[in-house]
DNA-binding response regulator
Amino acid sequence: MEKVTDVVMVRGEAELFERTAHLFEAATEISCAARDLHTWSVAHPAAPEREQSLRGMTVRKVYQPGVLIDPALAEHLRTMAAGGARIRITEREINETIILDRRIAIVAGDHVAGVRGYTVISSPALVQGIESLFEAAWHGATDLESYQARFTELGAREILEQLGSGCKDETAARALGVSLRTYRRRVAELMELLGASSRFQAGARAREAGLL
């Protein structure tokens, strides 16, 4: 472990858990931003402990849309929400971060030789800056229930697959069993949902979010 003033760098989730378990146990407010549910598995209690773990806590989590592709992961999100966590979805790139009680920030780094690095920060100035980035992501994101309802209603997964295949609109509409007009309307709505101004951009953002 390398320590520089109020910044501690650790390697792997085992060391991260060893160094921060007591912080998670004592925390009453947790803010989390991640691309998927695997980055912060250290912060996800087992099912029997989940209900107890959220009592008396304020938990906010922001994920990218890719978590909705896997039905099991989507169900896990709904379970967390039912347990009291507030969950939102964003198509924007996010810094994978956890903030504990507004005084400790944990930032996920890159994988090196198959092991991911994490930085634990307690400097008030640095934590405040990281918290500002999280708040911006949070306010720009969409509530899980609203996003998932829209995502399902549009048949987003199926449309993205058709767009990714490069087939013509007529062919895609037939494959999905809808009219050409309905298909094009859903594509336009999906582009709006992804914040894209073109089909190419929609595909690019979908890939970035792990949807394709």
